Amino acid sequence: MRKEKDKIKIIPLGGIDEIGKNMTVIEYKDEIVVIDCGLKFPDDEMFGIDVVIPDITYLIKNKDKIKGFFITHGHEDHIGALPYILKQINVPVHATKLTLGLIKIKLKEHNLLDVVELVTVKPTDVIKFQRLSVEFIKVNHSIADATAIAIHTPLGAIVHTGDFKVDFTPVDGEVIDLQRFSELGRKGVLALMADSTNVERKGYTLSESTVGESFRKLFQGVEGRIIVATFASNIHRLQQIMEAGIAHGRKIAVSGRSMENIIPVASELGYLHVDESSMITVDQINKYPENQVLIITTGSQGEPMAALSRMAAGLHRKVQIKTGDTVVFSSSPIPGNEKSVFNTINQLYKLGANVIYESLAEVHVSGHACQEEIKLIHTLVRPKNFIPVHGESRHLREHADLAFNLGQDRNSIVIPENGDVIEVARDGIRKNGTVASGHVFIDGLGVGDVGKIVLRDRKLLSEDGIITVVVTMEKESGMVVSGPDIISRGFVYVKEAEVLMENARLVVREVLDECEEKRISDWNVLKTMIKDSLKSYLYSKTMRKPMILPIIMEV
Amino acid sequence: MRKEKDKIKIIPLGGIDEIGKNMTVIEYKDEIVVIDCGLKFPDDEMFGIDVVIPDITYLIKNKDKIKGFFITHGHEDHIGALPYILKQINVPVHATKLTLGLIKIKLKEHNLLDVVELVTVKPTDVIKFQRLSVEFIKVNHSIADATAIAIHTPLGAIVHTGDFKVDFTPVDGEVIDLQRFSELGRKGVLALMADSTNVERKGYTLSESTVGESFRKLFQGVEGRIIVATFASNIHRLQQIMEAGIAHGRKIAVSGRSMENIIPVASELGYLHVDESSMITVDQINKYPENQVLIITTGSQGEPMAALSRMAAGLHRKVQIKTGDTVVFSSSPIPGNEKSVFNTINQLYKLGANVIYESLAEVHVSGHACQEEIKLIHTLVRPKNFIPVHGESRHLREHADLAFNLGQDRNSIVIPENGDVIEVARDGIRKNGTVASGHVFIDGLGVGDVGKIVLRDRKLLSEDGIITVVVTMEKESGMVVSGPDIISRGFVYVKEAEVLMENARLVVREVLDECEEKRISDWNVLKTMIKDSLKSYLYSKTMRKPMILPIIMEV
C-alpha cells in the first residue's frame, strides 16, 4: 500500500474576496488550528441582517481535531464571530492581552465568560501541540498588540501576517519583529499568507505617530470645542488625541458605547495611559469654557446610531453641535460607507461646525501595509509558496502579481476562494476540493435561520411593498362568504389611490365570479388566478410589482 | 405709498446639498426663467424609487410668468426631469444642439416630442424677453456643447456657470469662453452662481485630451480583446477611445442601451466622428481575432442592469468575459457607487480578465473645475454677490470660504438651501422666506404618489418582513369562525420555524379567547391586542420586529 503523501491543508473559511469574517483553518493529520474568528457587516442586499459570520460546518465535523482559535488582533473582522461560534465549538482561545481584553467584553455580553478557556500569549510565545506549534510574532496595525502567526509543522513553517503595516516609529515603541520574519525566511518558510488590503497603494503607509503631530498643529489656536471621531479600538490614536488635547489645556470627554467600553479595558491593561485629572464626563462639558473642551467620539463611519451621527442629527442628549465647534474625522470611509460619512459631514456643516476630514488634512493613516511594505515582507520571508489573503479578488490578483514580480514562481502562488482546500506538500501547492463555506446570517437572536428565500422576500417587499387579498369561502359550496378584502403596505399611499384599490378589488371579484361559475374548488388554483390577474392589472396601472399574498379562509 | 424695492429673486429648487436634480428659478417682476431641470437617482433609503425630481409647486403657481427652461448641458441631473415636468408646465426648452438632441431622446420615450417647443441655441446667443434676457456662454465639461448662462436684468447680470471645467486643450478645440466671463466681470456682475463639485480638490483638473494619450499607450501591445466602460454622454471620451482603438487596428463594437441611443445622435449632429468602416456589432465580435476587437460599453458605475455588469455576472448574451480580456474603467465611482463598481471589478477578475481602473492608470479625468479653475472664474467675474451651488453642504461651505479668501465680502455670500428665496437688490443680497421644495419620487408610472408613509413601510418590510394574521369572526356573536391563520413573508424561513409559528398562533388564539370571554366586539381593539401580544412574543423569541398586519373577516 502506497503511503499517503505528507501534506498540510490550508482552508480559508472567510476573508477571501471580502474584507471581513476572517477565518483560516490549518490542518495537519489529526490536528487543526484556526486563525481568527471574525464577522462581517452586511451588504446593502442583506436586508435586515445584523452581522454575518463564516459557515463552520467543516469545523463542527472536525471538532475533535481543533486545538483552539489563535487570534491575530482585536478587530471585529477577526474576533467578532467568537461568541456565536464558541457556543457551537468550545475550544480554547489564544491571543495577546489587549486582544483578549476586547474578546472578554464580547463574551461577557453573551454570558460566555466563565465557559470558555482563554489563553493569554505574548509575541515570541510558542504554543506546542503534538505535531503543530503556533508562534505569535509582533506586527504593527491600527490596533495595539497585533500579531502575525507562524505555524510550525513537520513540513515547514506556515506564516500568516494577520493585518499588518511596518511602522518604524509606532506610538508604543513596539516595532514589527522584522528580525523574526527574516529568521524564519532564512530557515525556510513553506507558505506565506499575507494581508492584501492596501496592495493597490504605492509606497509606504505613514507612521501612526505622524497623526499625533497633525493633531498638535491642528488644535493650535482653535477657539471653540473640538470633537474628534475615530475608531474606538485604535488605542494609539486615542492616546495621541488625548495628549494633543491635554497639551492645549483641554479636558477630555468620551462619547459612544464602544469607546466607553474599550478605554477602561485598554487603560487597565496598560495600553492606554489616561490622565485621570484631565477626564470629564459629557455631562460636565458645559461647565468648562469651549476652548478647554475636547470630546472623543464614535461614529467616524457615519454609523446611524453612533454618538457623532446623533450629534449631527441633533439627537444627542448631551452634545449639541453649534457654530464654532470643530469636528475632526480621524478616519477614512470604509468602501460602502462614503455616503453616510459625507451625510454626517454635511449635517455638521449645516449646524455651523467646521469639519476637518481626510481630504482636507492629515488626520488619519491606514493600518495596512502599502506596496513597499508588502514587498519587504515577501523579501524577508522568501516563502516557497504564497497565498494572498485578506482582500477582495482585485486585491488578491494584484498581490499575486506583486509576488510574481518579486520572483515568486507562478506555480507556487494560489489565489484562494473561501472553502478551498489548499494542500501544501514538500513538492508544491495545489487546490484539492472544497468544503462548505459562505455566509451565516445573524438576525436578532437567529443564527442562520435567515436564508436566501427570506432575503429575496425582504428585497421584493422593500421595492414595491405587499398586497394582501383575503377571501372567506364556504368549504362545501365553494361560494364566497365575505371579501375580497385588499390591504396594502408599502405599495401606494391608500388615500391617494382609492380608485386604484377599488378597481383592484373588482379585478379579484371577477376572478372569484369566474371560479364560482366554473366551480373551481382547488384553492391553490384560485390563489394563482387571483395573483396573476391582480399582478397584471397593477402593473398596467402603476408599472410596479408588489408582492401579492392571497389568503383563503374556509368556513 | 412707498415704492417696493427693485429686486431679483433667485430660488434654487434643486441641486443644493445634493449632487442631482438641478433647477434654479430666476424671477424679476412678472418674468421667470428656469435654469436646468434635472433628476437625481435614489439614495439607499428611498426603497423602490426609480428617480427623484424637484418639487415644482412654486413653478405651477407662477406658470404664467415662466419664459422657458434654459438648459446648461445634457446630463441627467440637468435634463432628466423634463419629461415629467413638461407634462405639468409646457413651456419652451432652450439648449444647444447636442443637449437638445439628448432631450429629444427622452421626450420621444414619453411621447412628448411634438408637444413641446424646443429652441436650439448656440453659445453667444441671447434670448430676449421683456425685461430679462438669457445669454449662453461656452464652457468645458465632461459632455460636449455645455454652457454657462448669464441672465441680464435691469439690476445687472446674474451668471450661472453650470457644470464647468477650464480645458485649454479640449478634444473639439472649443475652449471655455473666458473672454466673455472676463467682459461680464468688467461690466459688473450682480451675482455669480458657481459649480462647487470639486472645490475640495487642489490644483487644476487635467485636460480631457490627456486621456486620449493614456489610451493610446494603454492599448499598445494588448493581445486580447479590450473592453472600455465609460459614460455614454461623454462624447469626447468616446471619440478618443474609438480613435485609440482604430490606431491599433481594432474594430469597434458598442454595447449598452444609452450608448446605442447617444452615439447616432451625437454622430448625426456632428459632435462625434464615427468611422463607419471600423464599426461592427457585438454579434460580429467573434468573427475577428481578439487583438482586433474593442468593445465600448455602459456600466462604468456598476449599475446592476448595465452591459458591463451583465458581462461581469456572466449574463450578457453576446459578450463572455475570458482570460486575456482587458477591461478598462474610464470613470471614477460616483460617491455611493464604490461597492457596486468594486463588485463588478472583482467579478471581472474572477472571470480571468485584466482590469484597469482609476487607481491603477490615468484613464479618467473629472468634468468639474478644481480649486485653481474655480479661483480663475471668481477672479474674472468679480461678482458683487456670490451663491455657491451644485454641491453638498460641505462643498458649498468650502466654496464660500474659497470666495472669502479671494476677497469676497462675507455679507455678499449666501449659502443657499433648496427652496430659499434669495433676493438680490442693488444694495445687497439676503434670504427672504422659502417656497415648497423637496423630493418628488417617481416609482413606475407614479409621480409623487409614494410619500413618507409608503417609504417607511418599505423600510420596515425590508428589515424583518411581515406577518399577516387573519381571523374570520361572526358579526353577531363576536365568535371566531375560522382562523387564526398566520402567514409570514421575509421574517423566518417557515420550514425552520414551525414551532415558532405554531406558538405564535397559540398566542393569537389566547387573545381571541380573552376577547370572546370579555365580549369585545370592537375589531380595532381586537386588532391592537393581537398586534401587541404577537409583537412582544416574537421579539422575546427572535429579537425581530416584523410588521404585523391583523385582518378580521366578518361573516
TrEMBL record, chains A, B:
GO terms for cellular component: cytoplasm. Its EC number is 3.1.-.-. It holds the Pfam family RNase_J_b_CASP. One of its GO terms (biological process) is rRNA processing. The active site is at D195 (proton donor), H368 (proton acceptor). Residues 20-215 form the Metallo-beta-lactamase domain. It comes from the Bacteria. It is found in: Cytoplasm. GO terms for molecular function: 5'-3' RNA exonuclease activity; RNA binding; RNA endonuclease activity; zinc ion binding. SMART domains: Lactamase_B. Zn(2+) 2 binds at H78, H390. Keywords: Calcium, Cytoplasm, Endonuclease, Exonuclease, Hydrolase, Metal-binding, Nuclease, RNA-binding, rRNA processing, Zinc. Ca(2+) binds at G48, D50, D443. Its cofactor is Ca(2+); Zn(2+). Zn(2+) 1 binds at H73, H75, D77, H141, D163. NCBIfam families: MG423 (TIGR00649). Homodimer, may be a subunit of the RNA degradosome. An RNase that has 5'-3' exonuclease and possibly endonuclease activity. Involved in maturation of rRNA and in some organisms also mRNA maturation and/or decay. Belongs to the metallo-beta-lactamase superfamily. RNA-metabolizing metallo-beta-lactamase-like family. Bacterial RNase J subfamily. This is Ribonuclease J. It comes from Youngiibacter fragilis 232.1.
